[in-house]
Amino acid sequence: MDANHSPSRRRRHETSPVGPELIELLEVLWERGREVSYPPVSASQLRVLYSLDREEGINLRTLGELLGSAPPSVSRLCDRLEALGFVRRLPSQVSRRELELHLTGHGRAYLQELRERRDTSLLEVIAAMKPSARSALLAGLAGFRNALDETGHAPGVRPAGDARTA
User: Which residue has better confidence, 32 or 23?
Assistant: First the structure.
């Protein structure tokens, strides 16, 4: 098969007319959700909170891998979140040399309140859509998620060795 006609190249060519517009609209949707402010935490600290919400009890090394961040940066983020009362470090039940990271009740309440504000903001826009447009959006986003699953890429996950500061 000619390299110019490989399946992945063909798929890219088929999506090219709508790809840029779709990406732009997804960015608008994403930004609308982010318009809800999240003081007193930074965007990086918020990523830590979401990660701990999904992966309760992980250690700093695992959190760093999830975030694609260097250990010192992750430690500083957790220091700040601990000072805010959102995170606590507890001795690991598996290894005395490790600490587990846990959300506090205050941290969970913060995430819940933030999610409620974001939901309200986005649901206002969704409610203004025609029912057929809502159905199309749902079908399209479900297809996007399925494609992500098929390609093996998860949002926010970087290839190994691509550590960044948080």
Answer: 23
Per-residue pLDDT reduced to its tens digit, 101-126: 999 999 999 999 999 988 888 899 89
Task: Report the alpha-carbon distance of residue 51 to residue 111 in Å, rounded.
Answer: 11
Q: Are 79 and 118 in contact (CB under 8 A)?
A: no
CA-nearest of 125, 129, 56 to 90 is 56
Q: Which residues contact 68 (CB under 8 A, 6 or more apart)?
A: 156, 157, 158, 162, 163, 164
Judged by phi (left if over 0) then psi (alpha if -120 to 50, else beta), residue 153 lies in beta
pTM of the prediction? 0.68
Residue 35 has pLDDT above 50, yes or no: yes
The predicted-structure confidence for 154-166, as pLDDT tens digits, reads as follows 555 444 444 444 4
Max CA separation in the chain (angstroms): 59
